[in-house]
What does this fold into?
Amino acid sequence: MKKNALYAQSGGVTSVINASASAVILEARKSKKIVKVYAAKNGILGALREDLIDTSKESKKFIESLQFRPGGVFGSCRYKLKDINENLLEYERLIEVFEAHNIGYFFYNGGNDSADTALKISQISNKLNYPLQCIAIPKTVDNDLAVTDCCPGFGSVAKYIVTSTIEAALDVESMCETSTKVFILEVMGRHAGWIAGSSCIAQESHPNAPHIILLPEVNFNQVKFLAKVKQMVKKNGFCVIVASEGVKNSKGKFLAESDSVDAFGHSQLGGVAPYLAGLINKKLKLKNHWAVADYLQRSATHLSSEVDRIHAYQVGKKAVQYAMKGFNGVMPVIKRKSSSPYKWEIVPAPLKKIANVEKKLPAGFIASDGFGMTNKARQYFKPLIGGKSKEIKNTNYQAGKMEMIPKKLKAWR
It folds into this structure.
């Protein structure tokens, strides 16, 4: 029996997540088993609210163009389903929506929390005796999903950070004689320092910055840090620092933790760059500037990695192929075969090995002094930032029809 498919985006979006969306829709249109692909408006909330977009109303040209569009075209959200035993009603509601619209395939495009959600949905569908094939599609700029070599979204952020570090360093170098001595760039990365670590590739370009990389995996030592800053300024005339937002002190507390939490229960981080700037002002009396890459680093399609975009497209395509083969509760992951030349393939991995597992930087990637990266790390990062898409010619993005299908159920909540 032919079924419809539902695709949803989750969590913080990336410059290439829409490439996965494009691949899912285009590949599903080829299938004889799938009637239509619906997209949940604003992620899993759209599924719960029965807010479903009929992607069959969109032209092939529009769907293809999504490969080069930042953000999440169908809307995303930060909403974590509770444990099945705590809130069975939410899961029953999802199955009710799936049943009402003949949905037999669910593709959930997100990170760690999304993998957990996809796993739970694949399990509850069996318990409630509803035939559903649930496939998670990897996405996260943090690059912290287990099993996969890298995560779609990360390579483009890494490229943005590498480029920004080089350009800012050249600026500071030109002004350091009479002006700014220290520049601090704060990047994303709550518990894993993949993004900050990737800035080491910038050291291959003059002026060999960053001079200091601060990671969540290495406890911050104020005395050693200030000594390193002073040393770098004396040696180079200036110092460039790339700091992960999740840098912690010796007690494991974030240097810049605020009192609020996000929808997933994660502490909101208040800004490690201004914290470090204040410390340098107070202790070293050195003029400095700081910047927070924030949303710019994850939305910069104009500077995205072509390797990353291809990764994102191929995992979306494989997700549909896996579903057509009867897979359930799996994620298509990237397996590296060689770094030079760069070779890779996509293989299925069970969500049980991915959900709720956070992959941090290996110890072998971190320099002995804790302020830099090793050659092994450089070999890992470099292939992921490669290439620039020839298709990105302008930023004249179209809205799309985004036609909603009629609701059949009572309103949720």
Remarks:
- The radius of gyration is 22 Å.
- The chain has two domains: 3-142+302-357, 154-300+380-385.
- The domain at 154-300+380-385 is CATH 3.40.50.460 (Rossmann fold).
